[in-house]
Amino acid sequence: MNNNSQSNNLSYIAVEGVIGAGKTSVASMLAEKLNAKLVLESFEDNPFLEKFYQKPEDYAFRTQMFFLLERFTQLRELNQKELFNNYIVADYIFEKDKIFAYLNLSDDELKIYEHIAQGLDKGIVVPDLVIYLQSSVERLMTNIRKRQRDIEKEISEEYISGLNEAYNYFFSRYKSSKIMIVNCEEVDFVNNPADFDDLVNEIFGSEISAVKYYNPSLRKAAQ
Questions:
Q1: How many CB atoms lie within 10 A of CB 201?
Q2: Catalytic: which of 45, 58, 91, 108?
Q3: Is 121 a residue of the active site?
Q4: What is the pLDDT of residues 100-152, one digit of tens each?
């Protein structure tokens, strides 16, 4: 597996997706497969997040600024030397912070956010490949309810719907690195080893150009 990832120049892979898409699970499994350094977003450390889900208009700015600075602090520790010697798998990219900012902040708050964010993204290492786990609102809400996290109990379907649209828009235009858009509607990478093995084969089986689309359900239908 390591030889394949070297041949595809994939030293640093980030897995992305809306809340409930399974990005942390897939990133963890992929890191184990590659014996890679795993970088996980620590959303539990944000003291404003649960309050934001309850009263978004009151806590959006504080929640967003905490995430921005925490993500910057975590990702700036990655450097070229570490990427050269080890594989890295993360469950987020720094740029996605803007998705939440534009969705949740007022115009005045956004001006402050942009002023700070513009000075932080310089020097952040960009992944060689971003894997975007794409799913429907219904599937995302099912996954969120199934895992029963107290911090997520106030998340509404309306919020996830808006977030899903924002993610799809963002990643349909993402050009900072190679991207693989994966339709996750009818697969279970965590509980079905065959689904995960197929995903790994898609990642490392051939050279990925700027954008690659992977729909596992179409492959299954053709078998």
A1: 11
A2: 91
A3: no
A4: 999 999 999 999 999 999 889 887 889 999 999 999 999 999 999 999 888 89
